[in-house]
Design a protein that fits this description.
Blueprint lengths: L29 E11 L5 E11 L4 E6 L6 E3 L2 H4 L3 H5 L4 H12 L3 E4 L2 H8 L8 E3 L4 H7 L7 H9 L10 H22 L3 H6 L3
Parallel strand pairs: 1-5, 5-6
Antiparallel strand pairs: 1-2, 1-4, 2-3
Helix pairs in contact: 5-6, 6-7
Amino acid sequence: MSRNHKPEEMDKVKAHNLPHMMLPVQVTNRIALDCEMVGIGPDGKEHMLARVSLVNEKCEIIIDQYVKPQETVTDYRTEISGILPEHISHGVEFKTIRELVRQTIHGKILVGHALKNDLLVLNLRHPKYNIRDTSRFRPIAKKAGSFGTPSLKSIAYALLGEDIQEGSHDSVEDARAAMKIYMLFEKEWEKNAIPAWVAQFEGE
């Protein structure tokens, strides 16, 4: 089973003060993001944020919080998400954690796997030139022997020798895996990346 990390308790911190609190570790230039989601809507197939995790390039936890439901949850997806009702019933308000994440990743290189899904559920945008998505960098899939879009689980095992997502997912574990994989390919990736100042000039 996955060794799930429990988000830090925030009993002493009021949610509306969260964006102004000191973050526990260094916010490096590269940050990895991963989210866990629950299902909403009649069939539970729509996604809603339930947990968000950010780690720095040393794989230290910057943010790891459960998020209070914005709507009625119709499927907790516990077998995959690891989320239980008690985790999110006293979670941080969505607007509060969204703003903290927005401020933290601003101007940073954002690392993750299938980041489009995480950014969508956070209702955030991030400049394309500052996104490093391990599901879309072809040299990763090639080295891992994957065809098509590889899963994070498969490339973590092939490239890191790590078994992740055994049982329910853990957003800290997944963010760390994405960061480790990115760091393996950092030189090759950044050599071919468009410099931020060029991308901004070209309106990317």
